[in-house]
UniProtKB/TrEMBL annotation:
This is Amino acid permease YhdG. InterPro entries: AA/rel_permease1, CAT_C. Residues 516-558 form the Cationic amino acid transporter C-terminal domain. GO terms for cellular component: membrane. Keywords: Membrane, Transmembrane, Transmembrane helix, Transport. It comes from the Bacteria. GO terms for molecular function: amino acid transmembrane transporter activity. Pfam families: AA_permease_2, AA_permease_C. It is found in: Membrane. It comes from Dyadobacter helix. The chain crosses the membrane at residues 37-59, 65-84, 96-117, 194-214, 226-244, 256-274, 294-319, 339-362, 392-410, 416-435, 455-472, 492-513, 534-553.
Length: 562
């Protein structure tokens, strides 16, 4: 048989469905309904974002961050509709990886799969570290104090100790004093101090064990934790509303648009869970009907909750006080409701566990799908004969998440998560344009509502350029002051954004593209421009490692190669 050597060899929808049905040992158990999918989506979205990173975003942007949640949610709705169309067309595990295989070919599918591995792994590291902070805080409420060297990452402890040596005690924050003390008293092997975030590592291994045992047990645990979580969030909103002082909402955007947009990574991190629903497609009873509904329902519910809780937090205390890791508990402590603060700390531990659970469900299923296609080692697609879960991939996921969670800082991971996610979202939106253009959309049971972009996309582009020329003098002066190397370092993505918009304007005019997927591409790309360049460097290194694996193994072993 002649070999297919193209880097962009594609899988047909029929071929993907056939491969999924013929998966070894009977495949995965189909037990999830629309309510379970919504629950899993809420479990992922209402997690570390609402319990921790929302504080940092509010500190940077003030009460106006509530509008950023709306803007980000709109971007996610465009993307969710695109995911929903793909999920109804290709109802198998693999999420954006599988969709890219159909639309763009194998090389793009590998890149997206590799980016998703980063997204899920890094997301769970953040969630595990956030869980550990709330867990340690909860134990203190019960009078139990763990040694500092068992609850801290060694990087923070080392930095705090060196700051103490060079600048003195007076310059340290309360957290840095704890970190420096942990460094001093930690047991040592030779000159090397033993410092690790033990709770973060242990909870990851425990959740991995639950995910390994089965989807039914994971579903039950997730549903229970989601009910509790939504109850806590509603309690915070209704109880906190009585302590809101409207003067705290003024000024509404104290640091202007730039201050609000600086929270993009933290806010977007709060939303990235909805795509994890699509990784459970093969365990869904009727994925073509239930997937689209679940994605839209959970996005709407979570956006309303996020906006309300941001307004309550910034109304209860001044936004300048919210740069804390546990903002929900903090605001109730600040108004003297220690009982509520304690209740939130206990509930947060359970709530964040559910987010950890969903991400640990998602990643092994992407590895499993890549392995089925021959791009990863066959062991990753092994299905446990009794538990009906991807057993080996689940164990590897647990190790990959638990080890970094023991030793790294949370802020290192947040922006990095968003880079991979934006990348996947843009390709999924672009993939829907491909489905429409090639006619594959005719077999989709759910389709993104069609709004002809022939004149709309180009017209909006002309208006945007005109608006900048007329009203963006400050922005133009800022660009004028930059050297060529500074523009490449700091503004390259912005240039790519405008080139992409111009290109899509032309293509929309020529091919009558649907406006909503195009809007999804542009909003995600714009949000990407707000992320730091250092995150892009790490992401590029990650992709380079992935391409080495692909060309060293996957390209030759791919089932499409035969």
């Amino acid at each position: 048989m002649e070999k297919n050597t193209s880097l962009f060899r594609k899988k047909s929808v029929d071929q993907i469905l056939k491969d999924a049905h013929s998966a070894e040992e009977g495949g995965l158990a189909k037990i999830l309904g629309v309510r379970d999918l919504v629950s899993l989506g809420i479990a992922a979205i209402v997690g570390a974002g609402i319990f921790s990173t929302i504080g940092l975003a509010s500190f940077n942007g003030g009460p106006a961050v509530s509008l950023l949640f709306v803007f980000t949610a709109v971007a996610c709705v465009f993307t969710a509709l695109s995911y929903a169309q793909f999920a109804s067309t290709v109802p198998v595990s693999g999420s954006a990886y599988t969709y890219a295989y159909v639309a763009f070919g194998e090389l793009f599918a590998w890149i997206i799969g590799w980016a998703l591995i980063l997204e899920y792994a890094v997301s769970n590291m953040v969630v595990a570290i956030s869980w550990a902070e709330y867990f340690v805080s909860m134990l203190k409420g019960f009078g139990i104090t763990l040694p500092g060297w068992l609850t801290m990452n060694p990087v923070a402890a080392s930095e705090a100790f060196h700051k103490l040596q060079t600048s003195g005690q007076a310059t340290l924050t309360a957290y840095e004093r704890l970190a420096a003390h942990a460094f001093e008293v930690a047991p040592r092997v030779g000159d090397f101090p033993i410092i690790l975030n033990l709770p973060a590592g242990l909870v990851t291994l425990l959740v991995t064990a639950l995910v390994y045992i089965g989807i039914r047990e994971s579903r039950t645990a997730s549903n229970i934790m989601v009910i509790l979580k939504i109850g806590v969030v509603l309690l915070v909103i209704f109880a906190g509303a009585f302590y809101v002082k409207p003067e705290n909402w003024s000024p509404f955007a104290p640091n202007g648009v730039s201050g609000v947009l600086s929270g993009v990574a933290a806010v977007f991190f709060a939303f990235i869970g909805f795509d994890s629903i699509s990784t459970t497609a093969e365990e869904c009873k009727d994925p073509q009907r239930d997937m689209p509904r679940a994605m839209i329902y959970c996005l709407l519910i979570c956006t309303v909750l996020y906006v309300l809780i941001t307004l309550v937090l910034t109304g209860m205390v001044n936004y300048k006080e919210l740069n804390v890791s546990d903002p929900l508990a903090f605001v109730f402590q600040s108004v003297g409701l220690d009982f509520m603060a304690g209740l939130i700390s206990v509930s947060s531990v359970i709530a964040i566990t559910s987010a950890l659970l969903v991400y640990q469900l998602g990643q092994p299923r992407i590895w499993m799908t890549m392995s089925r296609d021959g791009l990863l080692w066959k062991k990753f697609s092994t299905i446990h004969p009794r538990y009906k879960t991807p057993s080996f991939a689940t164990i590897v996921t647990g190790v990959v998440v638990a080890v970094p969670a023991l030793f790294f800082k949370m802020d290192f991971f947040v922006d990095l998560t968003s880079v991979g996610t934006f990348f996947a979202f843009i390709l999924v939106c672009g993939g829907v344009l491909y489905l429409d253009h090639t006619g594959i959309s005719q077999r989709s049971k759910f389709r993104v509502p069609y709004i002809n972009g022939k004149f709309l996309i180009g017209g909006l582009f002309i208006l945007a350029v005109g608006g900048i020329l007329l009203y963006g003098q400050d922005t133009l002066k800022e660009w004028d002051a930059l050297s060529a190397s500074e523009i490449i370092e700091h503004k390259l993505l912005t240039i790519i954004f405008w080139i992409t918009w111009a290109t899509l304007s032309y293509l929309s005019f020529r091919y009558n593209f649907s406006s909503l997927p195009v809007a999804g591409i542009l909003t995600n790309l714009y949000l990407m421009t707000e992320l730091g360049s250092s995150n892009w460097l790490i992401f590029v290194i990650w992709l380079a490692i992935g391409l080495l694996i692909y060309f060293g193994y996957g390209y030759k072993k791919s089932k499409l190669a035969a």
